[in-house]
Write a structure and sequence with these properties.
Length: 221
């Protein structure tokens, strides 16, 4: 489908540098660069109409083009740092592709390589059926509640929720607290109007899309 009419586009953000694993997005995994697996599943989707890579690396852009996806620009280095935000590259992408403006950006991180195209399509269908949602994020259940976790202040453990109405609430059983969910990078869907109208990435009505637990590549192990 022509990009001038595409409603749903995938964007794979892949910066060149990474602290823990140098050039993480293109390290070889089973004979292919890590980003290959995200490109492959995006191409298998029946609902994604265009696939782009947002990168500051000529090498990553070349790999993307070789795999048949669009890499029409290089992202500025100043928004490709360790402390750069997703909102920055999204706004850069939207500015670059003007006058074309898609309705949805399917955000697929290369660091979550194990996915199924049918799950991505189910997420897309979910947000299409919920027009009041400002975004969608994939999550999975977390076994240990953050209500039972601590931070360290001057050598002493401090609970994360000092205003909780029960003393030593962190010693209560897990069942005393609400089930919590961890964003896992399987598939996030950004509603472009949310970005343009609120200058936020996800807005206030983030649709929950529960998946099985998935691996995120953050360390060599």
């Amino acid at each position: 489908m022509s990009s001038l009419h595409s409603k749903i586009v995938a964007v794979i953000p892949a910066k060149e540098e990474s602290k823990r694993i140098p050039h993480k997005n293109i390290i070889q995994v089973a004979g292919k660069p890590l980003i290959y697996y995200t490109i492959r599943v995006a191409k298998q989707s029946e609902l994604i109409e265009e696939i782009y890579i947002s990168t500051d690396s000529k090498k990553i852009a070349y790999i993307g083009k070789e795999e048949g996806v669009k890499a029409p620009f290089l992202r500025p280095k100043e928004i490709s740092q360790d402390n750069s935000t997703d909102l920055e590259w999204v706004k850069h992408f939207l500015e670059y592709i003007k006058p074309f403006t898609p309705e949805y950006i399917v955000h697929l991180r290369p660091t979550t390589p194990i996915r199924k195209a049918e799950v991505i399509d189910k997420a897309i269908q979910t947000i299409l059926k919920n027009p009041e949602a400002t975004a969608l994020r994939s999550v999975h259940k977390v076994s240990e509640s953050p209500y039972k976790m601590f931070y360290i202040h001057k050598g002493y453990l401090k609970g994360l929720f000092p205003d909780y109405p029960v003393k030593e609430y962190y010693n209560l059983p897990n069942q005393a607290f609400p089930q919590v969910y961890k964003p896992n990078g399987y598939v996030d869907i950004i509603k472009v109007n949310t970005v343009l109208n609120t200058n936020t990435l996800h807005g206030e009505k983030i649709l929950a899309f529960e998946t099985e637990p998935v691996v995120e590549i953050d360390t060599w192990e």
